[in-house]
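Q: What changes when pyridoxal-5'-phosphate is included in the input?
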Amino acid sequence: MDQRITTDGTANGADVRRRIPRTDALLRDVRLAEAAHRLGSGVVKAAVRQAQERARDGAIAPEDVADSAVALLPRTIGGLRSVINATGVVLHTNLGRASLSTAARQAVQEAAGPTDVELDLRTGVRARRGRTALAALRERVPSAAAAHVVNNGAAALVLVATALAAGKEIVISRGEMVEIGDGFRLPDLLVSTGARLREVGTTNRTTIADYAAAIGPETAFVLKVHPSNFRITGFTRTADAGELATLGVPVVVDIGSGLLAPHPLLPDEPDAETQLRAGASLVTASGDKLLGGPQCGLLLGEEELVRTVSRHPLARALRVDKLTLAALEATLTGPETPTAASLAADPARLARRAERLASTLAADGIDVRAVESAATVGGGGAPGVTLPSAAVSLPERYAAALRTGPVPVVGRLESGRCLLDLRAVPPEDDERLAEAVRSVTEPATEG
Ligand SMILES: *Cc1c(COP(=O)(O)O)cnc(C)c1O
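A: The predicted holo structure follows.
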């Protein structure tokens, strides 16, 4: 038997070390063997090493190394971790915006293998890529004669500007020169395509006469951009799609949020159908904001323009994958999205959920109470709109502990408390949320 010297030099330490199971023995544990098959042996070996280390440090008993290694295994190896969005921001950019519906997740799973994305199974002949998703889109927006899908809203704008306006002018209001976030500015994006911007009006007021004066032989189209992340109030004036349609040049409206039809709770948020019906030639939008689908960019409108845009060589570089098409179609044809459910959530029901969570956690001795809260739509649109909500209020130190816990929860800090806002948390996640709070409570009470 080998008599290794332990770091602390005690016979007890040496004894413990001798009893730590060896790696090859641990890898024969059925649970770990199965995990190696599922996740890859590298991940399992790392968990085993970590568990052995914990036993060596005296944190666990040698008999518990296998169990510990199993507990340390990640659920998936995607790198991205699933989190509970308790920020009260329904579409949180840093949390990946819209959460896909169960139907969309299943569609993604189904599409992950070989699919008929570009093949007609009946005839065995090549078919238009994503034709069923595009048909679903047109069904939801009857005024759109044609549709095309690209990687995101920014890509939709780049493609339109490149295909229709390279070397020409895009007429745009000075009040709509928007920064969309993280330093990205739409004017820079548009100019990068080789189009020139013809700015009209002022920050707060732009009239139809301002646009009319700028239209000329160099004009490719008029672009109207929805200010989706800020609001200008007071002495303001803008021209709507109906007025712009009288100018005799194509009108492109970037609605941002991806609402296909008016939303009763968000009356100021533009939607594709209304804009097209009013006279817009093309509408561009994101798929993962208020539409509640996967990241993608939608292009809807006149057949001729959509054809020109979708046949431009750049379209090939911006095309979406089959997973996106599958998720988009399921979002369009399936049940209510988590985004729509969060927006429509009844405040009284949210309050009851917060009360229930607070009372079960209080029973565990946690300093917790249910409070009223104000949620927002987020980077996805409807700036300035607050949605009455309810939250579980915990001591501030919970914020960091919950983020880094086994089930990561992202809350928000307010007046020295950590609030877990329930507006964007699906009701079926309440038990997971309670468990997440409990799982980070123990060490704090011990210490
Ligand atoms: C979000 C947004 C964009 C960018 O869309 P992405 O899908 O994030 O690329 C462009 N324009 C408006 C008005 C937006 O709100």
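Observations recorded in class: The pocket of pyridoxal-5'-phosphate is lined by residues 152-154, 180, 225-226, 228, 254, 256, 286, 297 (CB under 6 Å).
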